């Protein structure tokens, strides 16, 4: 259980944080609150990195805020656009030949006779050559379409020039589709095909205001523990319970933030309102987490993972990514998912190349990941980096167990994140409210953090409480810029 829930054994064996080399200059007698009061933005980035890398953990907050991939905005609500592919097949709603509904024994289009098809969009111009679901059959658009209610009616003629050719009735049934091959015209023509275009899809999300507090009595603040917290840089040590409690609070805060960035569910109505109200009567907004933002069409189930399932899934995701050099995926999964992926990739090792186990280089927006990573170069320019994701192993959150292994079913979940760049910005970013990514303050009573106990009448404190209270507040969310290029494989045990 110690591995699943982090550093329990380390705490019990001494609570010395020197193992975390990134935790320089923060854990001394004044503890983290002093640093957070003076440099909140810089320290927040550092803490995201620290809590995302310690205990061999990787988190969504680490992949975004910890690597400087943060977008600061000034409003609670944020929107962005996703450009989708303009070319798409058009669905047939109805078809007629010689003025009648087509039966299975008909030969529509034979001897050059026209076929009428009803579609919902004016997608083609006169002279366009169309193909059916069976690409062996093609037809030419004859003249301009006319409108029939909300639909458009096209007149088609078999394009191969053979008098005995016709279009099989099954290809003209409701739900079948048409797509453009090209166009063809006679000498001196004046007609022309039309272009197809599509406006970007606009997506909307909300920031979520998160809070946490803890309080320390005056006696507890003065208590000395038998275990120490030690600053690896300055070598200073602290035995005070108040420092330990602050460390635990920060750790719980970042774990909560990380979980919410993954699992939070969007709660606003189409008109932007929400029925969820706080004690004050004001609305409580919750933004969509990472999992809710992934396109539902990219979520698939599996019973036994095979190399064919993995390859086909990654190649399907890759079709939505332009550019062979941008097909870089990070697979976040639990212990059991790692086991499944390891089995499949090793069995297929002859066709892939293991790149490295370190994935952190560069600076600024060009930072890449670090820690226990294994990267595989696969076919068609796909790069897959595996990373253990402890959130999927947590028995606290994941209580549905596999009937055979007894491990959480969620541990088999595999979330493939497209880590490429979009217009100079990472495809996945942490979004924060300006000045409110990480707020921390105290309500001082008899004792104040970093100042100790007061022994002067002139000392002004905010409360008569024999102790003090510390508050955390953050207003943040996550944005998956292109939801069509990330996906999930989810174990089906039902």
Key descriptive features of the protein:
single chain; 494 residues; alpha+beta; Elongation Factor Tu (Ef-tu), domain 3; 3 domains; six-stranded antiparallel β-barrel; 28 strands; 29% strand; elongated; disordered N terminus
How would you explain this protein's 3D organization?
With 494 residues, the protein is α+β, with helices and mostly antiparallel strands. It has 3 domains: 8-81 and 203-288 and 433-472, no CATH class; 90-183, Elongation Factor Tu (Ef-tu), domain 3; 294-428 and 480-491, no CATH class. It is 18% helix and 29% strand. It has helices at 8-12, 31-38, 40-53, 60-63, 218-222, 241-263, 290-293, 307-318, 335-347, and strands at residues 70-73, 77-82, 90-97, 100-101, 115-119, 128-131, 138-141, 146-148, 151-158, 177-183, 201-206, 208-217, 224-230, 237-240, 299-302, 328-333, 353-354, 374-377, 383-388, 414-418, 421-422, 425-426, 428-433, 439-444, 447-448, 452-453, 467-480, 487-491. Strands 15-28-20-16-19-18-17 form a 7-stranded mixed sheet. α2 (31-38) packs across α3. It starts with 7 loop residues before the first helix and ends with a strand.
- Portion of residues in helices? 10-25%
Largest beta-sheet details: 7 strands, mixed
Count, helices: 9
Shape: elongated
* Arithmetic mean pLDDT: 78
Radius of gyration: 30 Å
Structural class estimated from helices and strands: alpha+beta
Q: Report low-confidence residues grouped into runs of 5 or more.
A: 1-41, 52-58, 357-373
E-strand count: 28
Please give the alpha-carbon distance between the first and last residues.
Answer: 27 Å
Counted up, domains total: 3
Portion in strands: 25-35%
| Major sheet: arrangement of strands | 15-28-20-16-19-18-17
């Amino acid at each position: 259980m110690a591995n699943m829930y982090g550093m329990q054994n380390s705490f019990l064996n001494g609570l010395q944080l020197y193992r975390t080399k990134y935790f320089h200059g923060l854990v001394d007698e004044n503890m983290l609150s002093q640093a957070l009061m003076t440099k909140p933005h810089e320290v927040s980035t550092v803490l995201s990195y620290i809590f995302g890398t310690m205990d061999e953990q990787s988190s969504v907050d680490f992949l975004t805020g910890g690597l400087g991939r943060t977008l600061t905005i000034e409003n609670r609500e944020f929107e962005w656009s996703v450009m989708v592919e303009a070319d798409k097949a058009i669905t047939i709603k109805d078809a007629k030949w010689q003025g009648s509904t087509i039966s299975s024994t008909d030969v529509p289009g034979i001897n050059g006779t026209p076929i009428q098809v009803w579609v919902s969009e004016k997608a083609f111009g006169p002279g366009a050559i169309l193909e059916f679901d069976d690409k062996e059959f093609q037809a030419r658009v004859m003249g301009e379409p006319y409108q029939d209610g909300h639909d458009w009616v096209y007149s088609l003629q078999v394009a191969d020039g053979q008098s005995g050719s016709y279009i099989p009735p099954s290809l003209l049934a409701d739900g079948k589709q048409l797509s453009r091959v090209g166009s063809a015209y006679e000498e001196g023509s004046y007609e022309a095909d039309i272009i197809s275009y599509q406006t970007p899809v606009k997506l909307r999300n909300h920031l979520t205001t998160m809070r946490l507090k803890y309080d320390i009595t005056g006696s507890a603040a003065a208590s000395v523990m038998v275990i120490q917290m030690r600053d690896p840089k300055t070598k200073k040590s602290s035995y005070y319970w108040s420092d330990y409690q602050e460390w635990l609070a920060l750790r719980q805060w970042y774990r909560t933030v990380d979980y919410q960035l993954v699992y939070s569910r969007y709660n606003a109505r189409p008109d932007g309102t929400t029925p969820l109200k706080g004690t004050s009567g004001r609305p409580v907004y919750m933004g969509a987490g990472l999992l809710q933002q992934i396109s539902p069409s990219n979520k698939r189930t599996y019973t036994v993972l095979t190399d064919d399932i993995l390859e086909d899934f990654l190649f399907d995701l890759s079709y939505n990514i332009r550019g062979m050099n941008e097909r870089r995926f990070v697979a976040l999964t639990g212990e059991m998912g790692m086991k499944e992926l390891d089995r499949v990739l090793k069995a297929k090792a002859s066709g892939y190349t293991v790149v490295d186990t370190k994935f952190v280089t560069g600076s600024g927006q060009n930072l890449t990941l670090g820690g226990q990573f294994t990267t595989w170069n696969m076919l068609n320019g796909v790069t897959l980096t595996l990373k253990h994701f402890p959130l999927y192993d947590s028995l606290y959150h994941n209580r549905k167990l596999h009937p055979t292994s007894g491990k959480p079913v969620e541990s088999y979940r595999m979330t493939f994140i497209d880590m490429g760049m979009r217009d100079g910005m990472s495809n996945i970013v942490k979004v924060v409210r300006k000045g409110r990514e990480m707020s921390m303050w105290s309500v001082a009573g008899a004792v104040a953090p970093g100042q100790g106990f007061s022994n002067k009448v002139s000392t002004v404190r905010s409360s008569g409480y024999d102790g003090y209270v510390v508050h955390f507040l953050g207003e943040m969310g996550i944005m998956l810029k292109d939801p069509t290029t990330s996906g999930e494989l989810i174990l089906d045990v039902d």
